[in-house]
């Protein structure tokens, strides 16, 4: 049965967030005020779910329409959820988070212009020591068939670029792999999870 937190979101939060990262978001100490940055938050399904679990969320997107919808969804979810969400209009091609300010930085399915490795490094700069960077990118070509996917023409996070951006002592790589999608979108997702070393 869906929890109260799950029912607050108008669209189900991303299964990677509720699956791979759920333990981060549901084992919060009652007295803590953890912080997550959702970069490219869209209309805020993950932000709503996270806020409903007691996280403070900074949700960044460059689409005023997405932010507007996110604002309305947050208001509908109630004051206890809405007050935990800060919506920010920003272009992830250049926008930078407050350094080391967030316990988790999420970035799911964005396709900014510019150098992807640079964006990964820039967004990663917002992760606090011991915190987690989690990114997912739908690859534009299906590696099994060589056919274009529904993300054709988009440049999303890849494991090669993430591996290059996160190499060195600063990060422990937990996950760096392509996973086959099981929906009608087809192809694979690059899934990246890394922990900033203290
Ligand atoms: C496919 S949606 C994904 C939304 C959400 N992360 C999710 O997984 O449901 C991509 C989002 O990224 C945003 N986006 C794409 N490029 C961006 C950029 N350069 N700066 C900020 N947001 C961007 C879009 O406006 C859109 O809301």
From TrEMBL:
Keywords: Methyltransferase, S-adenosyl-L-methionine, Transferase. InterPro entries: Methyltransf_25 (IPR041698), SAM-dependent_MTases_sf (IPR029063). Signal peptide: none annotated. One of its GO terms (molecular function) is methyltransferase activity. It comes from Dermacoccus profundi. Pfam families: Methyltransf_25. One of its GO terms (biological process) is methylation. It comes from the Bacteria. This is Class I SAM-dependent methyltransferase. Residues 36-131 form the Methyltransferase domain.
């Amino acid at each position: 049965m869906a929890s109260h937190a799950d029912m607050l979101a108008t669209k189900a939060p991303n299964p990677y967030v509720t699956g791979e990262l759920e333990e981060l978001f549901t084992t919060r100490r009652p007295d803590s005020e953890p912080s997550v940055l959702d970069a490219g938050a869209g209309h805020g399904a993950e932000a709503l779910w996270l806020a409903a679990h007691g996280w403070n969320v900074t949700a960044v997107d460059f689409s005023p329409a997405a932010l507007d919808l996110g604002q309305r969804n947050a208001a509908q979810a109630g004051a206890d959820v809405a007050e935990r969400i800060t919506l920010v209009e920003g272009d992830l091609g250049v926008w930078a988070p407050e350094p080391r300010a967030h316990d988790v930085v999420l970035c799911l399915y964005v396709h900014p212009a510019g150098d992807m490795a640079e964006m990964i490094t820039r967004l990663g700069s917002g992760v606090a020591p011991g915190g987690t960077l989690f990114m997912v990118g739908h690859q534009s070509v299906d590696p099994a068939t060589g056919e274009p996917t529904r993300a054709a023409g988009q440049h999303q996070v890849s494991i090669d670029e993430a591996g290059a951006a996160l190499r060195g002592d600063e990060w422990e790589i937990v996950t760096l792999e392509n996973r086959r999608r099981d929906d009608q979108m087809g192809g694979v997702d690059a899934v990246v999870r890394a922990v900033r070393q203290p």
